[in-house]
Amino acid sequence: MPVNSDKTKYLPSFISKMESAKLHPLVIDTFTYYYKKVISGATGLISNRDIKPVALDEIEDASRIKEYAESGREALRHAVIIKLNGGLGTSMGLTRPKSLLKVKNEKTFLEIIVRQAERCRVKLALMNSFSTHEDTIDALSMIKPSDSPLLFIQNKFPKILQQDLAPATWPQNPDLEWNPPGHGDIYSAIYTSGVLHSLLKNGIEYAFISNSDNLGATMDESLLGYFSENKLPFMMEVVPRTPSDVKGGHIARHINGSLILRESAQCPQDEMDAFKDIKRYRFFNTNNIWTNLKALEKLIEKHNTINLPIIKNQKTLDPRNENSPKVFQVETAMGAAISLFEGAAAIRVPPSRFFPVKKCNDLLAIRSDRFVFSKKDNLILNPSIGSRSITIVLDPKYYGKIDSFDERFAEGIPSLIDCESLTIDGDVRFEKNVTIKGEVVIKNSGKSQAVIKQGSVIDKDVIPS
Fold this sequence. Notes:
The chain is of the alpha/beta class and 465 residues long. Helix content is 24%, strand content 24%. The protein has two domains: 8-353, Spore Coat Polysaccharide Biosynthesis Protein SpsA, Chain A (Alpha-Beta Complex); 360-458, UDP N-Acetylglucosamine Acyltransferase, domain 1 (3 Solenoid). It has helices spanning 11-20, 25-39, 69-75, 109-120, 133-143, 186-192, 195-201, 221-229, 272-275, 293-303, 360-367, 396-399, 402-408, and strands spanning 51-52, 60-61, 79-85, 102-104, 107-108, 123-128, 150-153, 157-158, 160-161, 178-179, 206-211, 234-240, 250-254, 259-262, 283-292, 311-316, 326-331, 345-348, 371-373, 379-381, 391-394, 419-425, 428-430, 435-436, 438-443, 450-452, 457-458.
């Protein structure tokens, strides 16, 4: 569809707005590319007719690459760990960076990440957002890492009014006129900040990128060795999809032959059943990404931008006001770069490399005895666990926000080492040294808080009187 000339008239306003915000020309060029997609009617949708499933034998299994560990140890001095550190964790009721949440043994995500990088003697870099940058700097001054991490800040894009595709304005809170561009912005941000140039100048070529809330995503010598020895430009870690992953992005093979990532927001509504079919689209993107920085620099400088597949999210301008104007937020996914690099690969990793904390349900499992620290300060599954998987469903009214969650487990987290599933419905507080085994439902329908007494061993459903 050709670009509508009546709507291109707003493009200079967008450019002026971004220039006034002192955004880098590459960022402005990138947004311009996406804006032209929007005004031409592009949806960013990826249809089943354009892709086909990836077969099991197309993906290498990390369990078969142990012989690359020595090469990985040699490559460590040329590697960097990059953590996406821009989230505030508002869904958990946090108001500060999510990485400053105490997640295990009174240690925050950030403390654990810093110590992990120190243990393997690999440079650490953090991509912050404007909302997390200053608090992260303050926290690092308290942690006192032996080698200060490199810090750079995620960019921002202006929101687009759905009504006429003009720049959104909101005088009562101008900050709401902007949206984060998604974690796909990392490639532009690392380039425009100068961090990419600095890393390459210092002999750093291999980057392992992951979310700061996923403590399973550690520097792995076999994976690094496999990545470096095979001279891959890009590698995505994937795990088999489970019923709980049906909304997450999956990989597929584009009809042109390249691997591609499809997020749920990119799937046509009438094809969602196929999207959720875990037997058809088998592999889930963990957002653990390996990138060759030389290849990344070459790609960016060839095009003077990095044009990832567009995700056009429909939102209200003020997310807390459903009556505020409807807008488009242009975003991209980091893993979508798999389709841009010739020779990009995916590798199947164990689920232990993917246990992010998105909700308090996840936090309960991490804080429990199901997880322990290894000698290398890596958070791993307790070797003594009875079941390698667990399902936790906590009543969001009483456990959805971190303050309420902490109040109900103030005396300690129950032992879950032999628990397969735990559902808590209603207001329940736990005293210390509680053990939960098997599949358990605890349901409190009363108006007053129920209490699970000290030392209780629960191996069947409980309905407090």
